[in-house]
Amino acid sequence: MGTLVQEMILESAEVDLEVVGAGMKRGRTILIPKVLIIQNFPTMLPNSVANTSDISRWTHLRGVELPELQSNSIEILIGQDVPQALVPLELESGDTGALQSAAHSLEDKRVLRLWSETGIKTNGHYQFPIPFRNEKTELPNNKAVAERRRDGLRRRLSKDTRLRQGYVEEINKLVAEGYAESVPKCQLESDTGLVWYLPHHPVLNPNKPNKVRIVFDCAAKHKRTLLNDQVLQGPDFNNKLLGVLFRFRQGTTAIMADVEAMYHQIHVAPEHRDALRFLWWENGDLSREPVTYRMKVHIFGGVWSPSCATYALRRTFQDHRSEFPDMVAQAEVNFYVDDLLMSLDSSNKASMLACQLRRLLACGGFRLTKWASNHKGVLATIPPEERQSALKEIDLRQDKLPMERALGVRWLLEACAKEIISAQLHTFCDASQAAYGAVTYLRMVDWRKYPVLFRVRTGQAGPTQATDNAKAGTLCSCPRVNADRTIRREMTMTIHESYFWTDSMLVLQYIANSSRRFQTFVANKIAVIQELSRTDQWRHVCTSLNPADDATRGLPVLDLIAGSQWIRGPDFLLSVEERWPKGKELSAVLNDLLEVKREVHHIRTADLRLKLKRLNTEELQSAEQTIIRLVQKEAFEKEIQTVIKGELPKDNKLYKLEPYLDERTLL
């Protein structure tokens, strides 16, 4: 018997079964022929079956109860070869977003089940255990490692008074806020197997010179053991960054906020807190003996912490969404880790949403702060101490709004949004045998019919797996149509049309072809392109106007920063459509090179009677030379004229090749 993970030899018998579904009102019998009988199923089989906790995060499935299975309670597995047994008796449909959740691994499901079953709320905050890989984890005593790192930290802090002051303040804050506590003397010699000492160090941000962040090193190794390896990472609950930024730019009124100390708002189960011990000097006095502390909350540096924090945030929305309007509950998709970025159609809605979101997140022990908005009316409804630091002292009646950063993107608050009447996606592709690149721009036209461009997605890779430029161009074009679909799905605004631009006529002919059979590599890519896009959406653009050419040929950093096409987009997209490149007409794709040569020969001789004649070698060679001559004339017309008159200038791209015209007048 073969499975995904192993092959085994088992004794088996074959029988035919008649099965009746449990709870079926009609008692319909299903015949299942050729059923194999084995002694036992694998013990891990129940972990592959969904249970009630797995589906509880979807509101439309909360009323569905699934049985809890044990390995010895599973008696039959029915495969896809018995479709009549798999017909659903009832269908519960949710919204589109619910169906787009990423599939979870078995480890992810295990973490979800752990947090769902053991998570509680205490003192207004959620409390979850650390998801250790093994239930009976035994950690070695690594206190010596923590002591060595402590001594190094002491020397560093002794030399830097400013760093020491910031470090002491942060540790004192952890203790004062209840995020950390000293370990009672009676528990110092605890031998539960879950005791681990975390070295810690400062991390400084150049953009925040006065801020010291303390990071606990969960990757510190002792006897081939490190804490992060003993813990499951947990599912990735983050919304897609691309979608968050897209939706942030859509409405006329935008708001931004930050969840204060997000990780520290989720408590650690008491039985796991000794795995988060650390050493520190009381009151920051480096001359005294260090004291043993332990964290009571999940920490920055733990491999499981990002998943735990986003799970707690989602759990807050799940547990309290019924208490708030739908618009507030839907804000869940506009968080990226601890950052909220959202836009709405009016300032009144934005003000209401900001107020309601503060209340909703407070139900889970979270506090939204560092608010910013491009509308002064919205800012006026937010207390000054809750705003971004640059907005706390501002006079909303006369001062201009400053520039802020939103997930690394500069946001000029004073720039007001316009009413959009048209939105298009323009994707440019380019490829070579060395690399391929693509870039997508969002072209929006406001009510004044002024077009505006935003670079929304880029991609670059290399070298390609293709063996020629045609395959490389097709390989580049295929993922771009998928990217277009992803962008459309993430944006809630209406995209009126999508266009795909390439400077390869061969790729365009491949896409336009509907009769020729291609090699498997090209055929599979073209099938995807033709399924997800229309032929009339594909346009030709000359190489000089193709911004994706910067990705495949490379560009000096200074030229990129100075405002390359890659950054600003092609200038013609800022004009009306009538001024866009017309490109070349797509002629029917000829079957092969022989057919091309035959057509050229007929054109040269102007003898239609030869249409069915088989060409000899000399005629084929003559046709081939004509093709090369025509291509060279189109690509190197100036160079050919210069070579006829004399030598090429040294700055010409063909100079190093020492070109000349042979007796056939070919370059």
Roughly how many Å apart are the termini?
Answer: 65 Å
Class based on secondary structure composition and strand pairing: alpha+beta
Estimate the helix proportion, in percent.
25-40%
Oligomer state equals single chain
Topology, number of strands: 21
CATH architecture annotation of the domain at 420-579: 2-Layer Sandwich
In percent terms, what proportion of residues is strand? 15-25%
Biggest sheet overview: 5 strands, mixed
**Going across the major beta sheet, what is the strand order?**
19-18-17-20-21
Within CATH, the superfamily of the domain at 420-579 carries the name: Ribonuclease H-like superfamily/Ribonuclease H
Catalogue the unreliable spans.
Answer: 95-102
Rounded to the nearest angstrom, the radius of gyration is 33 Å
By DSSP (H or I, 4+ residues per run), the number of helices equals 18
Mean pLDDT, all residues: 81
**What overall geometry do the principal axes of the alpha carbons give?**
globular
**CATH topology of the domain at 420-579, anyone?**
Nucleotidyltransferase, domain 5
CATH class of the domain at 420-579: Alpha Beta
What topology does this entry show?
Blueprint: E1 13-20, E2 29-37, H1 52-55, H2 106-118, E3 120-122, E4 125-128, H3 143-159, H4 161-176, E5 180-182, E6 200-205, E7 208-216, H5 241-248, E8 253-259, E9 267-268, E10 277-280, E11 291-295, H6 305-320, H7 326-329, E12 335-336, E13 339-344, H8 347-362, E14 368-373, H9 376-380, E15 403-406, E16 409-412, E17 420-431, E18 436-446, E19 451-461, H10 469-490, E20 497-502, H11 505-512, H12 520-532, E21 538-540, H13 549-553, H14 557-561, H15 565-568, H16 593-605, H17 617-635, H18 637-645
Parallel strand pairs: 4-9, 17-20, 20-21
Antiparallel strand pairs: 1-2, 3-4, 5-11, 6-7, 8-13, 8-14, 10-11, 12-13, 15-16, 17-18, 18-19
Helix pairs in contact: 3-4, 10-12, 16-17
